[in-house]
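Exam revision sheet. Question 4 asks you to relate a sequence to its structure. Input first:
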Amino acid sequence: MDFESRYTISTEVEFESLKLVDFSEIIDSCTEKWQNRTLVQVNDSVVRLGVIQGEFHWHKHDDEDEFFYVIEGKLLIDVGDEAIELLPKQGFAIPKGVEHRTRAPQRTAIMMIANVTVNPTGD
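Answer key, C-alpha coordinates:
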Protein backbone atom coordinates (compact mmCIF):
# COMPACT_ATOMS: atom_id res chain seq x y z
CA MET A 1 0.00 0.00 0.00
CA ASP A 2 1.34 3.44 -0.92
CA PHE A 3 1.11 5.33 2.38
CA GLU A 4 3.12 8.28 1.10
CA SER A 5 0.32 9.31 -1.23
CA ARG A 6 -2.36 9.14 1.50
CA TYR A 7 -0.56 10.90 4.35
CA THR A 8 2.08 13.54 4.87
CA ILE A 9 4.39 12.22 7.59
CA SER A 10 7.65 13.84 8.62
CA THR A 11 10.01 11.97 10.96
CA GLU A 12 12.60 14.78 10.96
CA VAL A 13 12.76 16.54 14.33
CA GLU A 14 11.73 20.17 13.76
CA PHE A 15 12.69 21.80 17.08
CA GLU A 16 15.81 21.53 19.20
CA SER A 17 15.71 21.56 22.98
CA LEU A 18 15.35 25.00 24.54
CA LYS A 19 13.20 26.21 21.62
CA LEU A 20 9.56 27.27 21.94
CA VAL A 21 7.08 24.90 20.27
CA ASP A 22 3.87 26.83 19.50
CA PHE A 23 1.22 24.18 18.88
CA SER A 24 -1.43 26.72 17.84
CA GLU A 25 0.82 28.21 15.18
CA ILE A 26 1.80 24.79 13.84
CA ILE A 27 -1.82 23.55 13.78
CA ASP A 28 -2.91 26.67 11.89
CA SER A 29 -0.16 26.13 9.30
CA CYS A 30 -1.35 22.60 8.44
CA THR A 31 -3.45 22.62 5.27
CA GLU A 32 -3.57 18.95 4.23
CA LYS A 33 -6.10 16.36 5.41
CA TRP A 34 -3.49 14.16 7.11
CA GLN A 35 -0.27 15.66 8.42
CA ASN A 36 1.98 14.12 11.05
CA ARG A 37 5.01 16.16 12.11
CA THR A 38 7.79 15.21 14.52
CA LEU A 39 8.28 18.23 16.73
CA VAL A 40 10.89 17.36 19.34
CA GLN A 41 12.88 14.47 20.75
CA VAL A 42 12.89 13.94 24.52
CA ASN A 43 15.37 11.28 25.59
CA ASP A 44 14.45 8.17 23.57
CA SER A 45 10.97 9.41 22.64
CA VAL A 46 9.53 11.83 20.11
CA VAL A 47 6.57 14.17 20.41
CA ARG A 48 4.55 14.37 17.20
CA LEU A 49 1.68 16.58 16.14
CA GLY A 50 -1.00 15.23 13.85
CA VAL A 51 -3.59 17.40 12.16
CA ILE A 52 -5.90 14.87 10.63
CA GLN A 53 -9.28 14.23 9.06
CA GLY A 54 -10.36 10.85 7.75
CA GLU A 55 -9.09 7.33 8.46
CA PHE A 56 -5.63 5.88 8.93
CA HIS A 57 -5.00 2.25 8.01
CA TRP A 58 -4.98 -0.65 10.47
CA HIS A 59 -1.47 -1.21 11.83
CA LYS A 60 0.58 -2.14 14.89
CA HIS A 61 3.97 -1.40 16.35
CA ASP A 62 5.78 -4.60 17.30
CA ASP A 63 8.20 -3.08 19.80
CA GLU A 64 6.85 0.34 20.82
CA ASP A 65 3.93 1.73 22.80
CA GLU A 66 2.15 4.82 21.49
CA PHE A 67 0.24 7.57 23.32
CA PHE A 68 -2.43 9.81 21.77
CA TYR A 69 -3.68 13.11 23.26
CA VAL A 70 -6.42 15.20 21.65
CA ILE A 71 -5.76 18.93 21.50
CA GLU A 72 -8.86 19.85 19.49
CA GLY A 73 -11.53 17.95 17.58
CA LYS A 74 -12.47 14.29 18.09
CA LEU A 75 -10.36 11.16 17.62
CA LEU A 76 -11.65 7.62 17.34
CA ILE A 77 -9.21 4.80 17.96
CA ASP A 78 -10.35 1.40 16.81
CA VAL A 79 -8.91 -1.50 18.81
CA GLY A 80 -10.38 -4.84 17.81
CA ASP A 81 -14.18 -4.44 17.74
CA GLU A 82 -14.12 -1.43 20.09
CA ALA A 83 -13.96 2.25 19.14
CA ILE A 84 -12.51 4.52 21.81
CA GLU A 85 -13.66 8.14 21.47
CA LEU A 86 -11.28 10.85 22.62
CA LEU A 87 -12.30 14.47 23.03
CA PRO A 88 -10.06 17.48 23.79
CA LYS A 89 -7.83 17.00 26.84
CA GLN A 90 -8.24 13.20 26.75
CA GLY A 91 -5.50 10.66 26.06
CA PHE A 92 -5.12 6.95 25.39
CA ALA A 93 -2.13 4.58 25.25
CA ILE A 94 -1.81 1.68 22.82
CA PRO A 95 0.62 -1.02 23.99
CA LYS A 96 3.12 -2.53 21.58
CA GLY A 97 1.81 -5.33 19.40
CA VAL A 98 -1.84 -4.19 19.50
CA GLU A 99 -3.41 -3.58 16.09
CA HIS A 100 -5.25 -0.27 15.90
CA ARG A 101 -6.56 2.41 13.56
CA THR A 102 -7.19 6.10 14.14
CA ARG A 103 -10.10 8.02 12.63
CA ALA A 104 -11.07 11.68 12.77
CA PRO A 105 -14.58 12.55 11.53
CA GLN A 106 -13.63 16.25 11.57
CA ARG A 107 -10.39 18.21 11.49
CA THR A 108 -8.61 17.10 14.65
CA ALA A 109 -5.29 18.01 16.22
CA ILE A 110 -3.54 15.33 18.27
CA MET A 111 -0.24 14.96 20.06
CA MET A 112 1.47 11.58 19.92
CA ILE A 113 4.34 10.32 22.04
CA ALA A 114 6.31 7.24 21.05
CA ASN A 115 9.80 5.83 20.99
CA VAL A 116 12.08 7.50 18.45
CA THR A 117 12.33 4.15 16.62
CA VAL A 118 8.58 3.85 15.94
CA ASN A 119 7.50 3.64 12.32
CA PRO A 120 4.42 5.93 12.18
CA THR A 121 2.74 3.78 9.49
CA GLY A 122 3.24 0.55 11.47
CA ASP A 123 5.45 -2.54 11.30
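Marking note for examiners. The radius of gyration is 13 Å.
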